[in-house]
Amino acid sequence: MQIRPLHSETDYDAALKQIEQYFVTEPAPGTPEADSFDLLALVIADYEAKHWPIDPPDAIEAIKFRMEQKGYSQKDLAALLGSRSRASEILSRKRPLTMEMAWRLNREWGIPAESLIRPTTA
Question: Which CATH number does 59-116 carry?
Fold first, then answer.
């Protein structure tokens, strides 16, 4: 099987059809089939990223997602940002994040900086 960059929707559809077989019968690691699967996944992901990009969430959505993901409460956010009222204002979009807050959220909670510095939506 020859794997090449995808230049059209037809190429993309063909690649999806090719990769489908690997979901039915998973290739053993280290085999040529596993390498083909990895390469197909890469070219498909590249095509999708170029043609249907997904913007990262804004800061507040990223914070809420991380809180839900890790089981953090508003109290945990308050401890990180300095006060309950500040955490409440941030989550309700009444106060913007400062660079220091963004740095702490990135460092302590691992929220991507790209999301934290992106302008928030109302």
Answer: 1.10.260
Angle between the N-to-C axes of helices 99-109 and 59-70, in degrees from 0 to 180, rounded to the nearest 10: 30
Cβ count near 41 (within 10 Å): 13
**Helix-helix angle 32-51:9-24, to 10 degrees:** 140
Q: Where are the domains of the chain?
A: 9-51, 59-116
Identity at 66, one-letter amino acid code:
R
The whole model's pTM is what? Answer: 0.61
pLDDT digit string (tens) for 38-79? Answer: 999 999 999 999 999 988 889 999 999 999 999 999 999 999
Is the pLDDT confidence value at 122 over 60?
Answer: no
